[in-house]
Amino acid sequence: MTERGDTMTGLDALMIDAQRKVLDALHQLEETRRKILFVIDEEQRLAGSLTDGDVRRWILGGGNLDSVVGDVCNRVPLSVDPHATLDVIRQLMSTHKIHSVPVLDVQGKIVDILFQENVCQDATIEPHRAPLAMPVVVMAGGKGTRLAPFTSVLPKPLIPVGEKTAIEVILDSFVEHGVDDFYLSVNYKSKLIQAYFEELDPPYRLSYVHEDQPLGTGGGLHALIGRFDGDLIVTNCDVIIKADYHALVEHHRDEGNDITMVVSLRHYDIPYGICDIVDNGQLCSMREKPHYNFLVNTGLYVLHASVLELIPENRFYHLTDLIDDVKAQGGRVGVYPISDKAWLDTGEWQQYCETMAQLRS
User: Fold this and answer.
1) Fewer CB atoms inside 10 Å of the end CB: C or N, the chain?
2) What's the topology of domain 136-360?
3) In the 3-class helix/strand/coil scheme, how is the chain assigned residue by residue?
4) The whole model's pTM is what?
């Protein structure tokens, strides 16, 4: 059967034990890029399936990341036996709108995984995704003081990340999804940024929004009022997000959000006993070496163009201020979770070094 699907050596990457944690599953989903894992029990038999959407819904519903995969997965996954014909498999995928199906032996163990692109050789196969036809705005006007002394010479967007500049890595991640319309909001050393891209001559459209004075992470967006219909993506110039932007935009639209903030899961272990006290200084309780999970703002957003009308002119204004204003008017602000490994931050020296180490690994 392996000639119809992935080789046996690749199956382990798509399987996960039912007792593994949800956070582990999210990391594995991002590494495989298949958007699905097949859950196995102690006997190595198929016990369920788990998609990135399942994990995201679990998180957004307040589910604990320390919960086990078996509590979150779909317990009635579709499968076929080794004797299933290609016509049967194609019909199964078409009817249930699935892109992969495991092949089970008589014991219920996975012997192969078939994918749509391998078994569908006719017009029923889904075409590649349409380009993500929406503008991306990069807020690139800050001084980057936390990266001094490099930023005393170079603007933060031109700090090298591997063999490219930080901003090239960011723009290229969107180009991979079909984006070719970019706007850079610039202020500090803006001429260096423009000169760099003039020399680079990239194959996408690049426009500049000039801030005469620093306007925060959102103030420069006022100049774009009236330029767009529909949605746009806004990102800081020091964050590299490894995410499916198509899925992000689809989530934003399905939820009817005015703003969707991409958030990263952050896990923190406290290596000490934490004491809770009452007003008179008496010990109430103690937690030994607790650990916490938080959803942290990454600095990447999807906005509906209509919310730009709320941004004041020539005033220092952060995107978090825009979120507050949208919520105050009854608008919808949602979040889109990604794992900690999908967020690479280059805004501070320690984070920059960690990002470089991760890119080299």
Assistant:
1) C
2) Spore Coat Polysaccharide Biosynthesis Protein SpsA; Chain A (3.90.550)
3) CHHHECCHHHCHHHEEECCCEHHHHHHHHHHHCCCEEEEECCCCEEEEEEEHHHHHHHHHCCCCCCCEHHHCCECCCCCECCCCCHHHHHHHHHHHCCCEEEEECCCCEEEEEEEHHHHCCCCCCCCCCCCCCCCEEEEECCCCHHHCCHHHHCCHHHCEECCEEHHHHHHHHHHCCCCCEEEEEECCCHHHHHHHHHHHCCCCEEEEEECCCCCCCCHHHHHHCCCCCCEEEEEECCEEECCCHHHHHHHHHHCCCCEEEEEEEEEEECCCEEEEECCCCCEEEEEECCEEEEEEEEEEEEEEHHHHHHCCCCCCCCHHHHHHHHHHCCCCEEEEEECHHHEEECCCHHHHHHHHHHHHC
4) 0.80
